[in-house]
Design a protein that fits this description.
It is a single chain. This protein has six helices and three strands. By secondary structure, it is mainly alpha-helical. A three-stranded antiparallel sheet has the order 1-3-2. α4 crosses α5. The radius of gyration is 20 Å and the shape is elongated.
């Protein structure tokens, strides 16, 4: 489907710039739903606070609750969502469960988002 278009049929102005460099194919519908679900996770300020609190350190539920000023119950509830989205990981330390960011991609997404809104 890489047909050449002549200048008469090529989009002009803003429409042309929106199409320049566009991918030849749209991602699979299922991937688009997964991406939309991932971005939905960033739609809650408590979860954003939790991700920021976990930048560069590991925290238990109690520590995380203290840092962000929320209840243990609220933190546990939001951690479930963050785990399902693979944004945080955990490890057991005796009776405690210690949480951290899953990987550098999480940090990058937050940093890029902050850069975008601060421009």
């Amino acid at each position: 489907m890489n047909e050449r278009t002549d200048d008469a049929t090529r989009p002009q102005g803003a429409e042309a710039s929106a199409l320049d460099g566009a991918p030849d194919c749209m991602p699979d519908e299922e991937l688009l739903y997964e991406l939309a679900d991932l971005f939905k996770v960033f739609g809650d300020t408590t979860r954003i606070k939790m991700l920021y609190a976990l930048m560069g350190r590991e925290l238990s539920v109690g520590q995380l609750a203290e840092v962000i000023g929320a209840t243990h119950s609220a933190v546990s509830h939001q951690l479930r969502t963050l785990k399902q989205a693979r944004l945080v990981k955990f490890q057991r330390d005796g009776k405690n469960v210690i949480y951290s960011l899953s990987d550098d991609h999480v940090y990058t997404m937050l940093a890029q988002g902050m850069t975008h809104i601060c421009e």
